Amino acid sequence: MPGGQLYDTIGTTYAVTRRTEPRIAAQLWAALGDARTVLNVGAGTGSYEPGDLEVTAVEPSAVMRAQRPAAAAPCVDATAESLPFKDQSFDAAMAVATIHHWQDPIAGLREMRRVARRVVVFTHDTSAAGWLDKFWLTRDYLPEFAGLVAGRPTVADLTDAIGARTEQVLVPWDCADGFFEAYWRRPEAYLDEHVRRGISGWARVGPETEERAVRELGADLAAGRWAERNRDLLDLDAAELGLRLLIA
Q1: Counting runs of H as helices and runs of E as strands, what totals does the chain give?
Q2: Coil, strand, or helix at residue 118?
Q3: Rounded to two decimals, what is the model's pTM?
Q4: Which residues contact 161 (CB under 8 A, 6 or more apart)?
């Protein structure tokens, strides 16, 4: 299901759990450099849009657009693969946790490169060896994720397409943005349906897999098995879980 259609279905409470994480925002905004005009592609409800810059948003989901605050940047109904702007219209184009929903990520990135002199993308690297085992949620409860990303462009494919470099993004233990990896040290959060509804991955694995994973995680938490397996995480302030900035 294309990203716009997916979020028309599951995005009705997205703004409740998906908020700007200031530490990640600072890293992302620094990567924008001296940009004054910014295009936010796949903008959702407006998280991570820098308030001191001139921002134009692009978002294909009507449900997501409707949740943007009244004071948010103007938002255009369009997709990444076909941006309705002239060449080099913006100083920078950014995309945050969205390219995994695009039907053609490489085409979308090339469009961003066409309309802006700088491109900054926040995404995750699922192409690295052992990525499935890096996060306990995919390793122990949702191995089906491997099938969801099979055949998708690798990070190397994406960087090659626009001549980008990568920058590691650590996930703080108390991350304010409730994306998939955010609760790596707060596993009880994944038992909360409101939290899961703000994470597209749960919808993509399907209700039967979700029910099984939640049931098993709940049982392991109650029995102390999760804590025993993941005791090395409890003293960490931030985790490296494969999140990256692509900067071109």
Answers
A1: 13, 9
A2: strand
A3: 0.90
A4: 106, 109, 110, 153
